[in-house]
Amino acid sequence: MAWQHTAFYFYWQALRYAKSWSHFKQMMAYFPQWKAALQPDRNSVADESAWITFAALHYLEGWLKPAHRVFEYGGGGSTLFFGKRTSFVATVENDGEWFQILTEKIREKGYQNWEGVFIPGEPVTDGSPPRPADPNAFRSGGKPFKNLSFEKYARAITRYPLASFDLILVDGRARPSCIQQALPYLKPGGLLVVDNAERNYYTTAFGEVFRTQFEPVLTKYSPGPYAAIFTITLVLKKM
Question: What does the CA dihedral 105, 109, 111, 117 come to, rounded to 10 degrees?
């Protein structure tokens, strides 16, 4: 067993990221679920669970309603998680092989409320630098994608009417660009969910927007399933 999968590692990470004693206790309470989710037969698709922090996952389990509509950048276990809890889920995915696997899994489960589209990144032809923090650049910070544009991917949400969605999950490529495109399509009172938000460049362009147009729901580190890391799944409510 890797030492990163031990109770000592979990305790050390909780101490490292705790903002307060209550935050530390909250993170420690997730240890049994974290440990169980690290077993070889566990993954988000098999569990039909979103691969986000436990804090965010538990919040959404209580918040989601059958009438809600969801858009997600990046599909997977989250697609199944939302599919069995809401009336409609739209997904844009950039990985063709994974999109095919996901499509087959949804058909196998019999979900009829899903609409998915595969939009890969396209080669950049103008020689522009990546600038992944710039929402207008449509570029990814991931090295394998540095010479690709994800403009069509980020704009996939624009095929729907404005204020169409109760929840938008940003967990794919070119996240700052996806956030920018998504904002007009989120209903008042709806949730914007940005995974791995400890990567500051995802959100640096939106400081004023987030302060004036959103209420913070979840902003702190938390453990999550299927991996030993602690991360931030940012959850904001649109005012």
Answer: 0
Residue-range definition of the domain harbouring residue 122? 45-65+76-238
The reply to whether the predicted model has a pTM over 0.85 is yes
The per-residue pLDDT for range 111-156, each reduced to its tens digit, is: 999 999 999 999 998 878 889 999 999 999 988 998 999 999 999 9
Distance CA 66, CA 39 (A): 31
- Any domain includes 142: yes
The token pair that represents 85 in the structure block: 């809890």
CB of 50 within 8 A of CB of 75?
no
pLDDT tens digits, residue range 199-222?
999 999 999 999 999 999 999 999
Q: What phi and psi values does residue 192 have, to the nearest 5 degrees?
A: -100, 125
Of 72, 154, 158, 151, nearest to 115 (Cα)? 72
Number of domains in the chain: 1
The CATH number given to whatever domain includes residue 117 is 3.40.50.150
Using DSSP's 3-state secondary structure scheme, residue 148 falls into: strand
